[in-house]
Amino acid sequence: MAYRTKPLRPIQLIFSSSAFALLLLLTLGTVITLWLHADIGFQLLVSDWAIIKFTIFQALTSATISILIAIPAARALSRRKFKGRQVVLTLMGAPFILPTIVAILGILAVWGRSGYVSEFLQKIGNDPINIYGFYGVVLAHVFFNIPLATRLIVQGWTAIPVEQFRLAAQLGISTSGIGRHIERPMLRTVVPGAFLIIFLLCISSFAIALALGGGPKATTIELAIYQALRFDFNLAKASQLAMIQFSLCAILGSLAIFITKPINFIQGLDHEIERWDGNEIHHKIFDILVLLIVCLFLFLPLFSIIIRGAVPLFTLPALVWIAALNSIVVAVISAFLSVGMAISMSIFIIKMSYKLPIMSKAMEIISFLILASSPLVIGTGLFILTFPFISPFTIALPMTALVNAAMSLPFSLRMILPAMTNAENQYGRLADSLGMNDWARFNIAIWPRLRRPVGFSIGLAAALSMGDLGVITLFAPPDVATLPLVMYRMMSSYQLTGAAGVALLLVSLSIILFWIFDRGGRLEHKIR
Amino acid sequence: MNKFTTLAAGLILTLASPALAEKLPKLTVYTYDSFVSDWGPGPLIEKAFEATCACDLNLVGAGDGAALLTRLQLEGERSEADIALGLDTNLTAKATATGLFARHSTNTTNLDLPIDWADDIFIPYDWGYFAFVYDNTKVTNIPNSFEALINMPDDFKIVIQDPRSSTPGLGLLLWVKQAYGERASEIWSGLSPKILTVTAGWSEAYGMFTNGEADMVLSYTTSPAYHIIAENDLTKSAAKFEEGHYMQIEVAAKLASSNQPELADKFLDFMISDKFQSIIPTTNWMYPAVIPSEGLPVGFDKLITPSKSLIINSNEAQEVRDEALAEWLTELSR
Amino acid sequence: MSIKLDNVKISHGKFSLQADFEIEKGKKIALLGPSGGGKSTLLSAIAGFKTPDSGRIFFENTDITSTPPAKRPIALLFQNHNLFPHLSVRNNIALGITTTLKLSLKEIETIDKALLRVGLDGLGNKMPSELSGGQQQRVALARCLIRKQPILCLDEPFAALGPALKKEMLDLVQEIAETTNATLLMVTHQPDDASYITDQTILIAEGKAHRPVTTNKLFANPPAALAKYLGN
User: Fold this and answer.
1) Mean model confidence pLDDT for chain B
2) Looking at CA atoms only, how far is residue A233 from chain B in angstroms?
């Protein structure tokens, strides 16, 4: 009890409150900055409401379908042992970190008019498929988000105590009974959180929604923000639209956090699978089919990226490699920053939860806001804020690292907070009774239980940062570039072949970074 | 220890040397990303200008043309920029209205533009025509007007860019408006089934086209020149439309807040000189504003020449744009 | 003869365990030994959660080596997670009769009787989270009671309970085993528990499960491995 009631040390207070301050600054702060900077007022038009409706509808549909596919996929991954399972799990993260333009071309290589599917259909005498439209938007978002949804739901399965499956096996509970008594209650706690995250990610989609949506019918709020900022220089409208994104986030975030239990990420994914159900042949066939279809769906576009990029990868000019180095440095720094913020915020939230539970929940919601925020608004807002004091060029890379760190914070926090809460509940009192000081307490009682989620979070944050164009476009100094920036510049100079090579390099580096840190978190790991 | 100090001193010297170079007056030019990239004109132009100006030319990429103006509006009078290079005539009226730009002192009488130029702030450095580009080994029945395009078979598809987020997209919007006026809505309604999709930027659209996703893509009449000259690929052509083609004229201007106004003037003069202009065709893949003394590079002769150049007076562009955009949104949202 | 392990070898990573013994019907057996010695592994193999690398397991002369857990004549109690948190106490027990949870009046009566037997009369409608740790184990015992399986396996079921409560529970287990005439297998690392209710003890240490020996005799004259464990 001693620790919980003890006030935060000054240093903890500084770290955690600056993390919160940064989040608030990047989300609400930038929006308000835009609002204050605006010299004309603005009223939402009828056409803007149509955009808002479309944005919400496509996000709801995309999130629903992603989850509906992710559930059987996660079940198959959780109850089947097979060679390469870990590889599948790692590679499944790839779509999520693809830069949008690469993802669009990858998806079209499979589903487009001249894609693999259409080619096959034409060979057997059918018309090519036309995915452009609402279905295209949903297809692309599902492609992006199935991996995340699956990963989140697999975590739920892994968190079920093995005794429950043994008990079920003992009592002869059928596969469907296990579904009813063990799996469905678990899903009820995991799915709402996963749904929320994916919904928010789909809300702020823009280039993908437009390109696969087939035209201005598929205009999202984010595109309207882009238009307001770039085309009309209407800061008031941009900030108002950004506020709508935040409101959606806040409403759904509150629902998810207050109604459901948080997702428990604590357990690793590679502990031995012990299952005695699902042995009937139709279950096996179903699982194999699900995994096969999901893997094909996710990996075929990646395959096309490899095919296109493999040859140019070896003839990339030197500046690409320098940009790659910049990207790696920014990615690693931003990943450590992200996790550092997540840890200090978790300490803060846990301490708060004893005194001011509402406050602690509110802080969790704030951490979600950044998911629904517009990168362009963040960039522009930061630009307005920093420009009077410092040249944008000198802070381009640090700013990119900082914003990328904040962007991945919701994921890091989702993983670290529950792990820390658990460690605190299980070992906090023991640590207090042993009279451990704060450092020993963290080092001995808490950290061993955080290693795994921290490794995973650093990996994910680094990979996300690698693929993100971030705010560097706004701050771009003349001679410093990141990999995504080089790729976009090559594309706009007709260097499409070279850009395909850069895309492959980008994806490979992201996956390698993710793998290294995720693995690092699991080394010397003896906790089950 | 000695070794270490020598090394450290060496390092400091190397690091400090660019700082020494900064003793030279510095001219900062904001432009779009593809201009400064290693495949664009930036590096060559920097070298050429620095050879004559006894200055440090600092080229800064700030997104695309529209982002460039936004950036300058955000920075206002405190901007480090001395020159903005890369706006086009659709933006100049809006740019002038910000009051951020200063009059130029350059003699623009020898420009080789299809139209007369009389602007006392902005100076053109290159120009091009928007056009639909196709693969001449795949498309044989080439549409020669928007109406012919409308009447193409059902499975003939084009990719265009969104006028709200892309310069060529806006160009097409004004192209149709200028060519058809009152009938623009009708043309868009006819084109709608031919439009496979609308992308946010040029790169997505052009990437989709080169991957074989669409039969034609909205780009420039000069795009095939890139494929011919840089890739020795003769399969890409631009379709010549009877209505004429809408022009994009890219311009630069001096900022009123520049602390190097003379150097800026010098750069603007340099910009329409032979040195600068001869770099443009094969790096920016546009027509130079002044034909270089050696003429246009081989390959440009294979490009189509529109029979009519369309352009909307920059003062009207804003108003026409808003009306045309409304029509475009209505017709394509059906 | 109730259970026979014929030259069974189970391995798990670097760890391996050998077992070759028979257990008489109706006996109460303690599986005793240092932690990490393989007690739970042995129980897992008997219950069907782990397949032996070699050797056979028999129940009353039937080979059950590859019989799935549910088909084995065993009722099992773990240290925790014995109850499904979203099911009421009554439904948790009902799982021992039918997994569909559709109960006849008679079955409800049986369950309530079992609750009475374990001292939880009238708590059938409670949720597991409303009960104390000891009460939760009683619910799980009630389920074992109504399953009437010839073998009752307990995996350190009361390790978390206080001495008085533990004695009570052990008495209850003994009573249940005797009324259902079941063979009892109980994993423990507490010599006291072993001598309190069991007839025989199987010592599991250093990769080997020894033959069952009468518990009192064993403690009176401990072999080297046991002496080491007991700290004598």
Assistant:
1) 88
2) 6
pTM of the model: 0.81
Mean pLDDT of A141-162: 85
Chains in contact with C, counting 3 or more C-beta pairs less than 8 Å apart as contact: A
Residues C94, C64 share a domain: no
User: Using a CB-CB distance cutoff of 8 angstroms, which residues of chain B are in contact with residue A490?
Assistant: 37, 39
| Residues of chain A found within 8 Å of residue C87, distances taken between Cβ atoms | 181
Does A171 lie at the interface with C, CB-CB under 8 angstroms? yes
Q: Are residues A278 and A144 in the same domain?
A: yes
B-contacting chains (≥3 CB pairs under 8 Å): A
In which domain, by residue range, is C45 found?
3-73+150-230
User: Are A514 and A441 in a shared domain?
Assistant: yes
Give the number of other CB atoms < 10 A from CB of residue B45: 27
- B26-31 and B56-61 beta bridge pairing: parallel
- For residues A41 and A236, the answer to whether their CB atoms sit within 8 Å is yes
Q: Kindly state the DSSP code that residue A316 receives in the 8-state scheme.
A: -
Please choose, from the candidates A341, A340, A342, A364, the residue with its C-alpha nearest in 3D space to the C-alpha of residue A352. Answer: A364
Residues B229 and B321 in one domain: yes
Comparing CB atoms, the residue among B34, B74, B328 nearest residue A493 is B34
Alpha-helical runs (H) found in B111-251? 146-150, 167-180, 184-191, 202-210, 223-231
User: What's the number of domains chain C is made of?
Assistant: 2
A394 touches chain B (CB under 8 A): no
pLDDT tens-digit series, residues A88-113 = 888 887 888 788 888 888 999 999 88
Rounded to 5°, angle at Cα A277 from A273 and A280: 125
Report the alpha-carbon distance of residue B153 to residue B187 in Å, rounded. Answer: 16
- The predicted structure's pLDDT at residue A273: 61
pLDDT at A40: 67
Question: pLDDT tens digits for A454-497?
Answer: 988 899 899 888 887 766 666 766 667 889 888 888 888 888 88
- Nearest by Cα to A445 from A457, A463, A432, A458: A432
Which CATH number do you get for residue B36?
Answer: 3.40.190.10
Bridge partners of C58?
C4, C63
Counting every residue, how long is chain A?
528
- Chain B, 226 to 265: residues with Cβ < 8 Å from chain A are 226-227, 230
Q: Does B67 touch chain A (CB under 8 A)?
A: yes
pLDDT at A527 over 70: no
Query: How far is Cα of residue B173 from the mean position of the Cα atoms in its chain?
Result: 16
Measure CB to CB from residue C87 to each of A166, A174, A181 and give the nearest one.
A181
Whether residue B92 is found in the same domain as residue B55: yes
Element containing residue C70 per DSSP (H, E): none
Count of structural domains, chain A:
2
The torsion defined by the Cα of A509, A514, A520 and A522, in degrees rounded to 10, comes to -150
- Residues C56, C101, single domain; the answer is no
